[in-house]
Please model this.
Amino acid sequence: MPGLPHSTRSSGAPGNWLARWLAACADLEDLFAHHHLLDATIEEVDGRRIRVGDRWLIDFASCNYLGLDLDREVIEAIPAYLDRWGTHPSWSRMLGSPALYRQIETRLTDLLGAGDTLLLPTLTHIHASVIPVLASDGTIFVDARAHKTIWDGCLAARAHGATVVRYAHDDPEALERLLRRHTATPRLVCMDGINSMTGNPPQLAAFAALARASDALLYVDDAHGFGVVGERSREETSPYGRRGNGVVRHLGEGYDQLVLTGGFSKAYSSLLAFVACPPELKRLLKITAPPYLYSGPSPVASLASALVGLQVSETRGDELRAVLWARTRRVLDHLEKLGAFTLNRSGFPIVEVPLADAGDLARAGRFLLERGIYVTLPSTRGCPARRSASASS
Model:
């Protein structure tokens, strides 16, 4: 994939803002120039094969965990919703909220076993609007490897007066020391549920107990756990548990002083996300979260696919999760036979393969591309430990 033309990169007088900005981002331009799996245009889809240009590739880069994006039951149900509601709600949720939202929130609250839920378009919206509300002018303690969108929400909160403190990844003892040192309230602890890079869960019980003992609120982003992992039981069809009701239920925790956020995009292939919280907080967020007041809502097709997807998950979701587990286990077992290292110790369907030499990332991408395999190349500039090839099973 070519970078920007040289004349564009170097043109402009010394005062040209674009030239200065491009010079500052030269390393990112180099990344795009040499990593041919970045910013690709997908021209066509055929099952789990995608066409980029004139080349068909096997897709290991998408996050449609349950395969509902191509599920005939879901697809065939959507036109009836479009006939009734049109393509897109015409109001912000504050002004007019289609009954579909209430139906989804009711089913979702019951599934999660939470006090209540509030739907917004994306988790990026949620982190940017909810974290500042919860933190106020207090202290945020954020996991060093938390997703970038969580960090962005924390920075927004800092602009409103909060103090942001980083603690070592998945280290309750490190967090405990910081909680003793930073006492300004309210106190908010932000972390991932199922980690988006390693596929591993956090020590949730330890963090939840610490938050409760320290009068802090635990804020968990379970984008990759919701819909995949769920409550454990003797009747489960795989180690992922049953019902796909998220990492809190999977690890046997409750919602006391814990706010769970998650999205429908990974398992349900829908543009929709949620906050699971007490009803009192839901009422507060309706008047303080800008996406609820001002943002355009999710399209009707996404609301419909979320609602129908929840129904599918209830009737045959555990079968889909069992297939996902078996396929992930096959990948992990093969990596072990090859002697390839992966950070995944959970068996959940995110498999990261770190490279011994970060400089090999572009070459590894070309190697896979030439063999018809499309994967994510999550390079982090200046952070060799995070340079890897990863795939969703």
In short: The two ends are 26 Å apart (CA to CA). Residues 127 and 150 are 6 Å apart (CA to CA). DSSP finds 14 helices and 13 strands in the chain.
